[in-house]
Fold this protein.
Amino acid sequence: MNNSLLVVVLASGVAYGTPLLYGALGELLAERSGVLNLGVEGMMLVGAVMGFWTVQRLHADTALSLAAAVGVAALAGMAMAAIHAFLVITLRASQIVSGLALTIFAGAAGLSSYLGNDLNLADNPARHAFNAAVFPSSMQGWPIVGPIIFGQNVLVYASWVCVVGVSLYLSRTRLGLNVRAVGEAPASADAMGINVTAYRYAHTLAGGAFAGVAGATFTLAITPQWVSGITGGAGWIAIALVIFAFWRPALCLVGAYFFGALQALSPQLQARGINLGPTELWANSLPYVMTVVVLVFVSASGARRRLGAPASLGLPYVREER
Amino acid sequence: MTVQSEKDRRGADGAPPPPAVEMRGIVKRFPGVLANDRVDFEAAAGEVHALLGENGAGKSTLSNILTGLYRPDAGEIFIDGEPVQFHSPRDALDARIFMVHQHFRLVEPFTVAENVVLGDHRGEGRTFRLRHRAIEQRVAELSKRYGLAVDPRARVWQLSLGEQQRVEILKALYREARILILDEPTAVLTPQEADVLFETLREMAAEGRTVVFISHKLHEVKAVADRVTVLRGGRSVATVSAADATLRSLASLMVGRELDSGQPARARTPGEPVLELTDVWSDADRGDSAVRGASLVVRGGEIVAVAGVAGNGQRELAETVAGMRRATRGKILVCGKAIRAGDPRSAIAAGVAYVPEDRLGTGVAPSLSIASNLALKGYRERSSSHGPLLRIGRIREHAVELIQRYSIAAPGPGAPARLLSGGNLQKVVLAREFSGKPRLLIAASPTRGLDVGAIETVHAYLREAAADGVGVLLISEDLDEILLLADRVAVMYEGAIVGETSREEADVEEIGLLMAGGQDPRAD
Amino acid sequence: MRIERRLRQPRWLIVAVPAGSLVFAFFAAGLVLYATGHNALSSYRQIVDAAFLNSGAIGQTLTQATPLAFTGLAAAAAFRMRLFNIGAEGQLFMGAITADAAGLYLGGHGWPTALVIFAMVIAGCAGGAAWALIPGALRAFFKTNEIITSLMLNYVAAYVLTYLVFNTESYWRQTKGFNASVFPTSKTLPNDALWPSAMIHARGGIALPLGAGIAVLVAFLLWFLFTRTRFGFEAQVLGDSPRAAQYAGMRTRRKILAVMGISGAVAGLGGASQVGDFAHMLDADPNGLQKQYYGYTGIVVAALARYNPLAVVVVAFLIGALQNAGNTLQGADFPSGLVGVMQGIILFSALGGELLVRYRVRVGRTMPATEAA
């Protein structure tokens, strides 16, 4: 039963969906504060390379190196996000162009590749990696829930904690209320003594940290090695996922696993010799096409605002202007 | 609630207490504008102090400085005689200074309670976790005590502007504000609602608070204030006691010269109907219907004003007639011919000119040159283009001519429109709209934010248009302006025209009641 | 420190800022090189040699600059109207696919080369335009954000391209020959579908590809369209303020569709030029066309040129030179990825420099607000 197509696809969907989930959670935080960051792909790649570098070079036991690697990846992502934050918050540059610039700067033909090659990270598999042995193998063997829920690695479980955390943070805490106010109506938040700039910086940086961890998920868990451009566009899907999820963390989780499962589907079908025409073409394209379809639905329903798009998303806030 | 005991205010030695607020020599510059030029201002605890001045006199700038939004280039601020320096709005809030801005500072998707607690770090909002229940309870208490009825759980976007104003005042009360500043608070109220507000303000002053009331309307200032400080051209020109001042003396202080009280227009004979609306409906931006069965006739050569509290569908009505909003039901005839719903080009072709409320952004494209903006509607005509090609020279010549004829103060036809002042921007819009030889002119709040000189110019142009036989549909929230200009007044309430009267028979009291849907808030 | 809006933008700043950005980028990238233990100066010397001075270098640079000019023009045409079409990448792939089909179908039948090339140009434009019209129509009719949709379609286009080369029944797939049975590849264009180039006898011969000439022509056409026609006027108004455009009775939907179509057509033309001028086949090699990121780099080009079509051509040449150096050089002084880093920094500094054009930065003279009372 656990080898049935559905269970295998769902189980690997959770694994493939995890970086999407981390990336989307980070982007969600930034966007809720009003900052659109199209540089997720770039931040992810730099996180991926720096996390990998840490496990290769740090001589410590598995747990410690992995923890350090995730921390370094988060910091690296944050550093990238800081460039974007400075440009769009302080210098009021176009958020769209700046985000694209960040992806070009940090992305597959940029800094991540520079660092990976310069630090000689290619060709060697990771010295430590997140494996799935968190729960005893007997539990992992349970029907259906075994592989899907108990057969995952620590990063997956940590992402669940993050979903709950971000969700509660936004809906139940004072800081969360302030962030939402900053994203919706910065002038109102400002008049009520909330430091718009500080909130936007903090959440853009937090978004970078999540993206860095998302990248590390690739190099430390999914395919524990480094190759240039390892994320393969996951950053862009993460951005789309935020819209897909109507800016809600719990829906990000659903969407991430859905897209993850789509990614897992094509190799599984091939492995089982099931031929559905140009399987590879449609299974690979499906996440992107689905995103477009959902976007159309979201915008055509005319309920964008009620669905949660922060009203000031993408707009710089300047107080002293006449 | 007594904010300060009498003893505190008197000081230990029995000397007169220092004023609650004192601002000395405030200077604030913006690029190209000296908004405040050594302004002095002081207000005592327990008084309603009006800040009077026409648009652009520096009232809002001064209050934004007092609330920490702007930092002054020079000058000092004292609260109860103590020098203070506000680095951010938070500092001012901590000094218990609160401002109700003209454009409310509310977060629309939030509930009333969430808005009230936003940014609070002393009361219910102090805890890391939000306790919605406790906050809502506190807000309900306050609204009951001060008779400011709003449901704490309602979302702000569901509220009328009058209710939103109550939320702002609740925010101030929640923070136990000692100094409350209100910027043009009556703009969103009917005359009767304004009376209620004045009562609330007097009550708040009686509790020992300082209420600063910003307005450019003389009779309001006279009605509510104890003292009046007049600003003109960025300077403070006088502080007088409201009881001693007359409307005339305040007016001359405000404008700096005697004001001709606007000669009533000479009698005009209305011609054929140029606009006939029959049971017109159209949607608001957010789903629901904004215009609900409006019917109205405007004849050539007359000025018909639509009065109403902001948010009752007047803006949407103007947009519907101009074709910018699709009419979902009903008939719109311009000069007897139906225009295509939701097609501005069809309206323009039928002779509809439109001066929109949002000048910068709708009325003009801000980054484009003045010449381009003057050609915004005429570029399709023979005079400006040759098939698909533009005749750039002709467009420029035409612009130069219009700039001269309408005496638009501009660096040149090539300068971007956003550099113009509000008055000159409005002249650009009017020049363009008139050059299209319209049959019907819709003017939506055409004088909002303009100074007295520019207002007079705009009024003169509207009268001239009517004299030329153009039907003018004036949409305004300013009853004074309406009574000055209109031949007929129609009152709009919740999307429908609920009453109509000629100017001769117009009665402010009655119009005010119609604006409130027939209810008198003073009744209880 | 205080930032104030400029009332007037000095003209010299509009040129000085991008130029300053380039200088700053070289300085900042130098720091990156220095920090990672490389010799920045020798790296830069190598760049200049590989981009301009070596024999055949300029030809190589043109090979890179030509597609960048097309994608840059595509981005400039759309971004000018604030239509953020970042799908030039996919539109270029689609143009390459359709132009290649036209070349394969019409070539080799003894028809005049000019006719075949013309058909390829039209096919490339049509392919790119059709692909761009998907996000364009969604934007025009459903107000769907074109940024994400155009971007998502890039990936779809890449998968389509790969599929067409790898699928055994594909029209584009090469089925004959020894190599074809070892590794899937696409058919090569017949000789009469190849685009000619003009030789300039200097520096060991510079081949000026036909595509480069077309790109310059397109730049002039776009410039004319945007500054001298009613269409351009409407696009300008719509880009500045959609409300004002609606107010003035402009047909905004048609304009969105037209501008996206033009943008896509220009990108597709870049694909046609890729096939006709350089690759002569459909290139599905993951390290080939898809690793060049012409579509994305085109946005860098357009932004640096401040969306001015004529400036795009110049900037495309410079960025193409950098790209060429990156492809040619690999080694201790020139780590891979440096080109992306430099492009990123150039763009960052240009964006930051925008602030200087729009605002004046003043070191504040705020008088003390209080004195001893």
Q: What stands out?
A: Chain C touches chain B at residues 4-8, 228-233, 236-237, 240-241, 243-251, 360, 365-367, 369-371, 373 (CB under 8 Å).
